[in-house]
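Need tokens for this chain, all 196 residues.
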Amino acid sequence: EKIGDLSSLEELNCFGCALASLPASIVTLGSLKSLNCSENTLESLPEKIGELSSLEVLYYQVLTFGGGATIIAAAFSAFFTGRGATRVVMIVSVSSSLLNVMLDYLLIFGHAGFPAMGIEGAAWATVISQWFRVLAYWRIMMLPCHRDRYQLATTRHFDGELFRRLLRYGGPNGLQFVVEVAAFSTFIILVGRLGE
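Here are the structure tokens for all 196 residues:
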């Protein structure tokens, strides 16, 4: 029953051990990468495993608030990468990562007056750091040296011809990406249903 004391355990083989249930402490095995429970008559799983699933859902729900930031930051970083200004991308990415680590410390464990939010705090830290990336790129792009040279503030009207060219060259790549993500998501859903 005290399997949780083996926190560094990476592989657990319970093949054919005539188990009817798993000990509740199995959910504390954070390093566990492989669990083989085949050839057993498992009748129930520990209640905490259900809690893990709800925590995953909570984490994903919070992360969706940063989805737009990820796309916008990728587009903004392409502005610098395409011109060979990769140092800007590196500085913004490192700054964002450091902010994420700092916010993780504050929001997960509740330090410096912040509430201890656990996994939800980790998700909010990621979302905040993603939006920080967007603001950092936008601020750098609006510096006079970039704004004036590339007319970033004056060319805000829709250009139909340019948009058609973007779709012509970017469409196939985007379609390939959508198919790849859909295939991976389908695989994950199918694997997730194996135990049902």
